[in-house]
Specification:
Elements: H1 2-27, H2 29-42, E1 47-48, E2 51-55, E3 59-68, E4 72-86, E5 91-106, H3 119-125, E6 131-146, E7 150-164, E8 167-176, E9 180-189, E10 195-204, H4 206-209, E11 215-224, E12 227-234, E13 239-245, E14 254-260, E15 272-278
Parallel strand pairs: 5-6
Antiparallel strand pairs: 1-3, 2-3, 3-4, 4-5, 6-7, 7-8, 8-9, 9-10, 10-11, 11-12, 12-13, 13-14, 14-15
Helix pairs in contact: 1-2
């Protein structure tokens, strides 16, 4: 009888310890701090935060978040989020998050010493060893900067749903600025050819276009970072723009074609077709 109890105790003890550890990780502030410390260690110190408060399940508040690598600089003033953790396979699910002061900048440093930046290598460094699924992320005051274009995108407010692993997936993006509104989706492979797919609908306000009314258009992107096809179509006035970029980063070989029966380019054209090509 005693032997049976001992064997039962030996069998139950690991389960109890695992349950207690799981509760500690997800329901205590010390557990949240431990998880954050593991994330910092996994990035060799590239990831940091000024403060971490709360617990993962009820809500974590992080302030002064920074991620600095050879080619990427990320800064977030503050984030509040609730999340859950799945084990097999390892997966972090962010059920809801609010952030402000978000800034992502791609720099020209690549750490090789030759002064050149390989965008494919930059994207490969953004791969994660596990998936982060985002059910809802609300951002205020967000800016994105690139070495080729400076600040090329900024939002007063944006809502994102998607995931991040070996592929960066945006299932839904809604964003608002004083100049335009965006509603779209897309995916970017962080390796294996770096394929890109995206569809967006844009409402461009007079502050951007200089016209008296809002202009709405749909745009698509498809291809890879070395050969990207872009297209945009406007219903009123009827017009279509197609473009091709032969690479992203630095000086870009590109070509653009503009077609419109409503707008004359050149002035005496019955059906306007304007092409512009530029090489390196």
């Amino acid at each position: 009888m005693k032997l049976r109890r001992v064997l039962l105790l030996l069998a139950v003890t690991p389960v109890v310890l695992a349950a207690v550890s799981w509760f500690w990780l997800l329901h205590t502030e010390s557990g949240a701090r431990w998880l954050w410390a593991r994330a910092q260690a996994a990035t060799d110190g590239a990831l940091s935060a000024a403060s971490v408060r709360g617990d993962v399940t009820s809500g974590v508040e992080l302030q002064g978040i920074a991620f600095v690598s050879d080619s990427v600089e990320l800064a977030v003033a503050d984030v509040s989020l609730t999340a859950s953790l799945e084990v097999l396979p390892l997966r972090v699910v962010i059920d809801g998050a609010d952030s402000s002061g978000f800034s992502l900048r791609v720099t020209e440093r690549d750490g090789s010493g030759d002064g050149e930046t390989d965008l494919g290598e930059i994207l490969a460094k953004l791969e994660l060893p596990f998936e982060i699924a985002i059910v809802r992320l609300d951002m205020r005051d967000a800016a994105f900067e690139g070495f080729a274009a400076g600040r090329f995108l900024s939002f007063d407010a944006a809502t994102i749903a998607g995931s991040w692993h070996t592929v960066f997936l945006v299932e839904r993006l809604q964003a608002t600025t004083p100049y335009y509104d965006i509603d779209g989706s897309g995916r970017l492979e962080l390796s294996d050819g770096n394929e890109i797919e995206a569809k967006v609908s844009v409402d461009a306000r007079p502050a951007l276009t200089g016209l008296t009314e809002t202009v709405s258009f749909d745009a698509t992107l498809a291809g890879t970072i070395s050969d990207l096809q872009l297209g945009a179509q406007v219903a009123d006035p009827e017009a279509m723009v197609t473009a091709r970029l032969a690479g992203l980063g630095g000086e870009l070989p590109w070509e653009v074609e503009f077609d419109s029966p409503a707008l004359s380019v050149p002035v005496d054209g019955e059906f306007a077709v304007h092409r512009y090509r530029e090489g390196r």
